[in-house]
Design a protein that fits this description.
single chain, alpha+beta, 7-stranded antiparallel beta sheet, 6-stranded antiparallel beta sheet, 10 helices
Length: about 375
């Protein structure tokens, strides 16, 4: 992946491509509907990776390079990865480079599930460092964007062990592949648009059928799965279950802390905090230092112009709803539902003008916070 850096006026706002990725589960029609695209099709590409410089890990598809986003508003639509490598200071910002290095430090996905995802967990930093030699685990967060009924079932998530689930019990239901017993070890929680959850590494979970959500996470694709066959009947490659570590070590990745449903939601169902509210502008912080310093997530709702605050690091916007215009001192850019934007560090003078009528709604995602 090489791009002629001379085509880039440094530090401009980048409009990013849709980046659909193959997964072991079926979905995607909700993404089509969200983008007002027909036909709405469920298939094996149910995820859209946003501003991604992370390659997807799909055993059996090693010859397919997928997961890398492209830049739509530059000639040749180069890979975002190449642009950031060629202009790190302009995009990441010097504090980010000094603290984190030339990596984004987060990955954003849009996920639409027509079937329940397999029960899984992800490594925390300690596990990832020890066994994957990675600086990042896969702590993540979810923001429920839309829901739909699938086969008459209400959308839900499976989330957190119930009290009394030990490693021995979890190994027994894994060895027997007793899926109802596995599901019964987790809380089944109904979800609605606007709900948000924080999922630390080691917490068992499964996204239920009928959920369209935005996931903000550490920038890896490590997933430990305990179901050898998906709900739709696809047999999973064993490496997709244990990531090459073996089943015993896979079971060690889970955190065996069990809580009541009330306590589970109190700990990890996100309570947004209003940080700006005036004259048709509402900014709510969802993921912040209350939960983690690994990434930050805010929702911005606008019916009047908004002066975007200057940030010392890059940020990524997902246009959740509505339309409008982004104005910077250098250019204007139309915004519409489904757009992905990367804003460079220290961008000043940016103003968002929502269209008259429907409000404009943005999800603003920030990498690990650095100390200036």
């Amino acid at each position: 992946m090489n791009t002629d850096s001379s085509v880039l006026p440094a530090a401009r706002v980048l409009k990013l491509s849709e980046t659909r990725v193959w997964r072991t589960y079926i979905g995607g029609a909700g993404l089509d509907r969200w983008r007002s695209r027909t036909p709405e099709t469920d298939g094996p590409f149910p995820e859209d990776w946003v501003a991604s410089i992370v390659r997807a890990k799909n055993p059996g598809r090693e010859d397919v390079i997928e997961g890398y986003s492209r830049v739509l508003n530059l000639p040749g639509q180069p890979y975002l990865k190449d642009i950031l490598e060629q202009h790190p200071k302009e995009y990441y910002g010097l504090p980010h480079l000094q603290s984190i290095g030339s990596t984004m430090g987060m990955l954003i996905k849009l996920i639409d599930a027509h079937e329940r995802l397999t029960i899984q967990t992800h490594p925390d930093k300690e596990f990832a460092r020890k066994f994957f030699h990675s600086d990042y685990g896969k702590t993540e967060s979810w923001y429920i964007l839309e829901t739909r009924r699938v086969n008459g079932q209400e959308p839900c998530i499976y989330f957190g062990f119930k009290p009394g689930v030990t490693r021995e019990r979890w190994k027994a239901v894994f060895d027997s592949q007793d899926i109802p017993a596995m599901l019964d070890c987790l809380h089944k929680i109904p979800v609605h648009p606007g709900d948000s959850f924080f999922i630390p590494g080691g917490l068992p979970h499964a996204i239920g059928a009928g959920c369209l959500l935005a996931e903000v996470q550490e920038p890896t694709d490590y997933t430990m799965r305990t179901e050898l066959v998906t709900p739709a009947g696809l047999r999973i490659h064993e490496t997709q279950c244990h990531q090459g570590l073996g089943y015993e070590r896979m079971l060690d990745c889970f955190h065996y802390d069990g809580f009541s449903e009330e306590e589970t939601c109190r700990r990890w169902k996100v309570a947004p905090v209003v940080v700006e509210h005036h004259d048709g502008v509402c900014v709510e912080s969802y993921i912040d230092s209350r939960y983690t310093d690994l990434f930050q997530v805010s929702r911005v709702q606008l019916t009047t112009p908004w002066h975007a605050p200057v940030q010392p690091q890059l940020q990524v916007w997902v246009v959740l709803r509505g339309s409008g215009v982004l104005k910077t001192p250098e250019e204007e850019m139309e915004l519409r539902q489904g757009d992905f934007l990367l804003l460079p560090a220290a961008l000043s003078g940016a103003v968002v003008l929502p269209s008259e009528g429907a409000p404009l709604e943005l999800l603003s995602c920030h990498p690990p916070k650095v100390t200036l």
